[in-house]
Amino acid sequence: MLSGIIRESISKSSAKTLRKDGYLIANIYGKGKENIHCAFKRNDFIRAVKKKTDLIFDVEVGTQKYPVVIQEYQKDPVTNEIIHVDLMLAQKGIEAKYSVKVSTIGTPKGLKNKGVLMVSKKRIKVKSAPENLPQNYEINVSDLDVGDVVLVRDLPAFNGVKIVERDDVAIVGVIKSR
Questions:
Q1: How far apart, in whole angstroms, are the C-alpha atoms of residue 25 and residue 45?
Q2: How does pLDDT run across 33-48, given as a tens digit for each residue?
């Protein structure tokens, strides 16, 4: 489990000092809860995020454990290192917006007809309570030929999950190669 420290001061100079020491500045927030200003070792955070299999993962800050979701992160424009991350509490029974991963299964038959598989959206925005959240949306692309697409409205419906994307947006399709 990823563990971090609580930041005593939220000033610019203390954040700079923590970054020099190899820490990643983070904020944990949730509906009706007070913000938690914390920091994680940068390499430990990246390792934990790459290893996680679920959208929601646990972090330990001080003596408390929190189930969180990565909401947003900021990178340094020059070095491309992550410098700040916003983590949202996944509170049971409280609906929030999440980005759920899209994965494809199979090989489209359109590839034999000089087509190329084009994935337009890697994540779908949904509104749900964390206990109803799907692991990911799996799309079977085996029947797709050149010119065929899978739209948001073609996704399977999950109980208690509302997709907040437009219905006519293409997720994956097979286009003709040049």
A1: 11
A2: 899 999 999 999 999 9
Task: Give the confidence band of 52 by pLDDT, cuts at 50, 70, 90.
Answer: confident
Work out whether strand 96-105 and strand 64-75 pair parallel, antiparallel, or are unpaired. Answer: unpaired
Q: Give the number of other CB atoms < 10 A from CB of residue 131.
A: 10
| Nearest-angstrom CA–CA distance, 85 and 154 | 33
DSSP string, 36-91: EEEEEEHHHHHHHHHH--SSSEEEEETTEEEEEEEEEEEE-TTT--EEEEEEEE--
Token digits of residue 65: 């454990």
Question: How far apart (Å, rounded) are the C-alpha atoms in residues 57 and 69?
Answer: 7
pLDDT reported for residue 53: 82
Q: Is residue 67 within 8 Å of 56, Cβ to Cβ?
A: yes
User: Which of helix, strand or coil describes residue 145?
Assistant: coil
Other beta carbons less than 10 A from residue 114's beta carbon: 10
Pairwise CA distance, residues 89 & 112, whole Å: 46
Q: Judge whether 126 and 164 are in contact, CB under 8 Å.
A: yes
Q: What is the pLDDT of residue 11?
A: 87
pLDDT tens-place string over residues 74-133:
998 999 989 899 999 998 988 999 888 899 999 998 888 888 999 999 999 999 998 888
What single letter denotes the amino acid at residue 39?
A
